Each structure stands twice: as structure tokens, then as C-alpha cells.
Amino acid sequence: MGEEKRRRSRVCAQFDAYVYIDGEKIPVITQNISLKGALFWPESRLSAGRDCTVVFGLAKDILVRLKGTIVRSSDEGVAIDFASMDESAFFHLRNMVRYSSQDADVIDDELHVPAFDLPRDEEPS
User: Fold this and answer.
1) Which of these CATH numbers, 3.40.190.10, 2.40.128.10, 2.40.10.220, 2.40.10.10, describes 11-108?
2) Strand, coil or helix: 118
3) Model-level pTM?
4) Residue 81 clears pLDDT 70, i.e. is over it
5) Residues 111, 52: Cα–Cα separation, whole Å
6) H-helix or E-strand containing 56?
């Protein structure tokens, strides 16, 4: 197996959510979740390469909206990479992951390292 490329811890947790794609609202349940994405139970209507919005309803008046891309869809599950979210959504997502983790400090420590490679500035000629 190849080198582990994940920069965010995945925690096993089941959260109900909806994936909005092409005007359709599809109910899903997480298998695991991180600050960068989630693996949901299989759903045949969600295919790889498509942009979507994931919405977690935490309470009557608390909705966590995350823009993402479906990066994998198979019989094992649907992996969605979170591409963007507002500050409030990040706050709630962080708490969802922290509370599901066995060591919340590890989740907080990961915030000191970028979740993706930053582009290098080209040297002037």
C-alpha cells in the first residue's frame, strides 16, 4: 500500500446529512469524518467527479453547509472532499470531529499544518 497522504485525522462517527446535487436532496450517513472530508455509506446516485453541497442538521436552527467534490463512489462508500465552508460551518465541523475523536487535542494540533500543498511562488527571472 502507498504512503499515507491524509493530513487530517478521520474519526468514526455517524452523522445524518443531505447531499444536494443537481437540484436533488439525497439523504446520507457518514461512516467517518475529518476536517477535510467524509466517507458516507454507499449511495448509487452520487458519482465521482461531481461538485455538491453537504448539509448537516445539528439542531433545528443549526445547519452546517459544506461545498465539496465527490472523489470516490463505490460499494464501500462515497468519499466527499470538502472544498469550502464559511467560518461558522468550520466551527461546527471542528466540534463534530473533536467530540467524535478519542483525542481532541490531536484534531486541534492538526490545524497548525495546511490541509493541502500551498503553491510556491515562482522565482523572478
Assistant:
1) 2.40.10.220
2) coil
3) 0.81
4) yes
5) 24
6) strand 51-59
